Amino acid sequence: MVDGETFYSAIYDGASNLTGKLASKVWPVGEPAGVKVLTDTDTVYESNGKPASCIMSTAYHRYSDDSNLTPPSGAVTSDGFLDSSYPNPTMCDSAFQTHKRFKVSAQPASLTSGGIDMVFNVSDGNTSATLAPNSATRYMVLQKLNNYTGKHLSGFKIQVGTGVGAAFTAIGAATTVELSDGAGEKTGGGDIWGPEDRAAFSAGLFGPADPPKHPNPGFFDNTNRAGFTDAENTNKDEIASTGTMTSNYTTLFGGSKWLPAKYQPKGIFYDDDNNPDTDDQLVAWWGDNPNTTVEDYQWLKGDADNFTPVPVDTLNSYVGNSQYYIGGIEDTVNLGLTYAVDVGDIAPASDTFTLRMIPIADSNQYVPGYMEEGNQPPTELVLTGEGGSSFSAYNNTSLIAMILGFLGLGAWVARRKLSK
Question: Is 283 within 8 Å of 271 (Cβ atoms)?
Fold first, then answer.
């Protein structure tokens, strides 16, 4: 593989319907197959109360990303990716931001084919001296479920069972494979994961600063995490969303609970380190200024700056600087999910279990205002004038209206709401 190359595994429902895509991190950060299972036969829980075994991505990280790691003899701290002589695979207990979550992109057919089914093989139970023979092993599941269904979603379900597609059967009660949201199960009391961490959008976009993990508050909401509340059912074969968290997510993007990828908002990003393997900083986004009573789509700052327009002088300073660029804010469609699956003895006839992910379409389907003709952002950074406030779609529309008015064609201009 070469730098920047990636792959995905197609997930079908057994009837030739593509329901999901399992993607890896780009090489040299990730490798096929995108997901791996790590079993710790000596430890059930880490010191932080999280399961020691996990289902996670096939990513790698630099030794410098984890202060607790000592590079092997001959290696330097910048080693660790697959293009180095000392690859360092990410593990269950690796440091924060070492690309642990495997990514599944829900496709349109997942809304009509029952969901996205991933089948896991199992082997004989552990024989560890510290765990009872054949006892269940608890796995922490670290994943992202990304909305490429083409529809606004209102929530999700995670189920465990057998079979795929129309042959899928939820595993039911009193079985040896169970799901858990970790509520009330932390050793010594409390939850393994807080409600705000089990089904959430990026903390870099939504949520308060939480050093050292999140040194800066979220760009769109510096107080509240965004995402869903969830709960497991009595049979412990399903975890389902129960509502949305209160945040700016549901107000800034027209009321969507979970945007599809085709409607992800656009932003201006800054590549602060010229490193394609690290995330770039979001410095502005294209939206309807929430501080006014009219629709005025333009480049805006984040919540910390009260969503004020970006000055034209600032925008012009980005032009010609290759470290600034316009792109989709992908993490508005990627939901991070964290839960546990307990795997015990499974009948030898199958030696498998199925993890099913079900996206739920919202009853309210609409085109966000920033996607409507006349409201869309520019596709590249260009000089927009001298001084004043941000470049605005309204300024563009007003100019067109004036010109067409002189030509007697004013009615051709796209409708623009005068109030919100």
Answer: no
Query: Distance between CA 10 and CA 20 in Å, rounded?
Result: 6
Residues in the chain: 420
Question: How do beta strands 169-170 and 137-147 pair?
Answer: unpaired
Q: How far apart are CA 278 and CA 29, in angstroms?
A: 10
* Domain region containing 189: 8-59+99-262+330-371
At 197, which helix (H) or strand (E)?
helix 195-198
Q: Work out how many domains the chain is built from and give that number.
A: 1
Say if 43 falls within a structural domain: yes
CA separation, residue 20 to residues 39, 107, 198, 254, 262 (Å):
26, 5, 21, 26, 16
Q: Is there a domain that residue 143 lies in?
A: yes
Tell me the Cα Rg of the chain. Answer: 24
- Which of 141, 156, 95 lies closest to 333, judged by CA? 156
Would you give the distance in Å from CA 347 to the centre of its chain?
35
Alpha helices in 102-201 (DSSP H): 195-198
Contacts of 172 (CB under 8 A, 6+ apart): 235, 237
Note whether 253 and 368 are within 8 A (CB): yes
Q: Looking at 191-296, which runs of residues are DSSP E strands?
A: 199-200, 228-232, 238-244, 266-270, 281-288
pLDDT at 247: 97
Question: For residue 418, what pLDDT is reported?
Answer: 36
Say what the pTM is. 0.89
pLDDT along the chain (420 residues), means of 10: 82 96 91 92 84 96 91 94 95 92 98 97 62 72 99 98 94 82 89 93 95 89 97 95 97 96 98 81 97 95 98 96 96 98 77 96 97 94 67 49 38 35
Contact (Cβ atoms closer than 8 angstroms) between residue 115 and residue 19: yes
